[in-house]
Amino acid sequence: MTNQQQKPFAQSSEENKQVILQAIEELVHDCRSVLEIASGTGQHAVYFAAQLPHLKWQTSDLMECHVGINQWLEEAALENVSAPICLNVSEELHWPDSTFDAVFSANSFHIMGRNHVEDFFEHVPKVLNPNAIIMIYGPFNYNGDFTSESNARFDQWLKARNPASGIKDFEWCNWLAEQSGLKLLKDIEMPQNNRILVWRNNR
């Protein structure tokens, strides 16, 4: 079995990486460092780091994901992407001491419980430089409603696996962000009933 076969692979990351890049490349034009939260397989990290060489891309995830992330990083051999740090958003000591110009996370909020999303917004300000941006990709509800029948089915599937998970309400996430000194900058419509929510650090 080859290393390529052994690496973890997420089809969704392969399918959405280009459209996400098109949406965020202007946003990070003046940034120099990005903390990716919940790097998953590492596919997004190596793709974005290769396409955006001016950025220093810091990967992170729970420890059980690190082997797979490192496989992608080792094969890509990029100088501007760093080995993953262990980061659980609900454990304050796991957050890095460094600060960043941007934070990026894809397909994470609907996996998290509500308490983890609350903890994310409570702790994320400590890693933000002045005027830093936060970019969150994934599905969101608006006015308490699903934006599509497929999202409603996806939410049922998520809750069947983990009752604490599920698609989060945009208004609730934005309220949490505002409580942490963040201001909504963009709400970008994406394919497959997803969004990219972008906040700026106003502190």
From TrEMBL:
The organism of origin for this protein: Thiomicrorhabdus xiamenensis
SUPFAM superfamilies: S-adenosyl-L-methionine-dependent methyltransferases
InterPro entries hit by this protein: DUF938, SAM-dependent_MTases_sf
Database matches in Pfam families: DUF938
Signal peptide coordinates: none
Name listed for the protein in its UniProt record: DUF938 domain-containing protein
